[in-house]
């Protein structure tokens, strides 16, 4: 089930401006259908439960007289949230998530009605296993419709790092070229910190110090230099880069940007490349620690 507009806006929220596009996102979401995991009532017959369980993953009609109940997720404080997903792909991204016998396809507006009818539900969480966007009630609104998106501090820092590592940092490299390399080699962590300050828009302070960035440079030849930036371990999680490797050929004025993207434990980390046109590509599994520079050098020299 493609939710192109909604997922496009989610991507913009992740890469262009942390916490931005909230109004556009809500307007699009209110016009779309979503997937909602459901559970069966306790009085459902064992025969029906077995039939449904035997057909998990297949499209099924809800049997007449059966009234599925929405599945709820709990946060650490015990608050209940109604999970919905923009696609089956998003719903299956957590391999450890339970497989429910029913997944209902319904308008997001219907989910807001479920929220309004159940005071024990705190809000709706969109794509809980990836983007984890929480839509809460606007208590100041007389109709009590969910109209606000809560982005926690943890989510904000996650989005800011994603924007920095996959968009802003390589874009600055490709635009400034030699100036970028000169600033990086001269100022090192102070220059990275300065760039991070441009990503944070004042809603939250940048949590990193210049000392948390480990910058190492290696002169391969008179023309070719490699830089490795060890990113802060603070806020490091799947979807965040542990280090970035930059190549610069001063004679050809050609630059390369690679990054080690942290993955889930069952997936492992990846070596990613960002191109001057903004395109991103997975190159290979992440090289072992200490071999990142030589691995990237091999790729650069074979181009």
The N- to C-terminal Cα distance equals 38 Å
Shape: elongated
Q: What ranges have pLDDT less than 50 throughout 5 or more consecutive residues?
A: 139-144
Helix content: 25-40%
How do the helices and strands line up, and which of them pair or pack?
Blueprint: H1 4-15, H2 22-29, E1 33-39, H3 46-54, E2 69-70, E3 73-74, E4 80-84, H4 88-91, E5 102-107, H5 108-117, E6 121-126, E7 133-137, E8 146-150, H6 153-176, H7 178-187, H8 189-199, E9 214-219, E10 224-230, E11 241-249, E12 254-261, E13 270-274, E14 280-285, H9 292-301
Question: What does it look like?
Answer:
The chain has 9 helices and 14 strands. The chain has helices at residues 4-15, 22-29, 46-54, 88-91, 108-117, 153-176, 178-187, 189-199, 292-301, and strands spanning 33-39, 69-70, 73-74, 80-84, 102-107, 121-126, 133-137, 146-150, 214-219, 224-230, 241-249, 254-261, 270-274, 280-285. The strands form 3 sheets. The chain has a 6-stranded antiparallel beta sheet with strand order 9-10-11-12-13-14, with helices on both faces. A 5-stranded mixed beta sheet has the order 3-4-6-7-8, covered by helices on one side. It is elongated and about 75 Å long. With 303 residues, it is of the alpha+beta class. It is 32% helix and 26% strand.
Short description:
With 303 residues, the chain is of the alpha+beta class. The protein has helices at 4-15, 22-29, 46-54, 88-91, 108-117, 153-176, 178-187, 189-199, 292-301; strands spanning 33-39, 69-70, 73-74, 80-84, 102-107, 121-126, 133-137, 146-150, 214-219, 224-230, 241-249, 254-261, 270-274, 280-285. Strand 3 and strand 4 (80-84) form a beta hairpin.
């Amino acid at each position: 089930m493609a939710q192109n507009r909604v997922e496009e806006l989610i991507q913009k929220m992740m890469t262009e401006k942390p916490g931005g596009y909230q109004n556009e996102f809500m307007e699009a979401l209110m016009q779309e259908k979503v997937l909602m995991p459901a559970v069966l009532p306790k009085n459902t017959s064992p025969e029906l439960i077995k039939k449904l369980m035997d057909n998990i993953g297949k499209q099924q009609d809800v049997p007449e007289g059966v009234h599925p109940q929405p599945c709820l997720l709990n946060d650490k404080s015990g608050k209940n949230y109604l999970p919905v997903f923009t696609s089956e792909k998003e719903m299956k991204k957590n391999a450890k998530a339970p497989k429910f016998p029913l997944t209902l396809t319904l308008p997001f507006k219907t989910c807001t009605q479920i929220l309004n009818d159940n005071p024990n539900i705190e809000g709706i969480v969109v794509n809980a296993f990836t983007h984890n966007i929480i839509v809460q009630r606007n208590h100041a609104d007389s109709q009590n419709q969910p109209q606000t998106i809560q982005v926690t501090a943890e989510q904000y820092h996650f989005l800011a790092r994603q924007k920095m590592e996959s968009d802003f940092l390589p874009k600055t490299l490709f635009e400034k070229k030699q100036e970028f390399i000169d600033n990086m080699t001269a100022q090192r962590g102070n220059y990275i910190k300065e760039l991070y300050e441009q990503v944070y828009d004042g809603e939250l302070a940048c949590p990193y110090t210049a000392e948390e960035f480990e910058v190492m440079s290696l002169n391969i030849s008179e023309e070719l230099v490699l830089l490795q930036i060890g990113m802060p371990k603070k806020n490091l999680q799947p979807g965040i880069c542990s280090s970035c490797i930059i190549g610069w050929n001063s004679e050809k004025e050609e630059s390369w940007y690679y990054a080690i993207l942290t993955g889930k434990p069952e997936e492992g980390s990846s070596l990613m490349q960002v191109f001057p046109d903004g395109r991103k590509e997975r190159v290979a599994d992440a090289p072992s620690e200490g071999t990142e520079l030589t691995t990237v050098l091999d790729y650069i020299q074979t181009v």
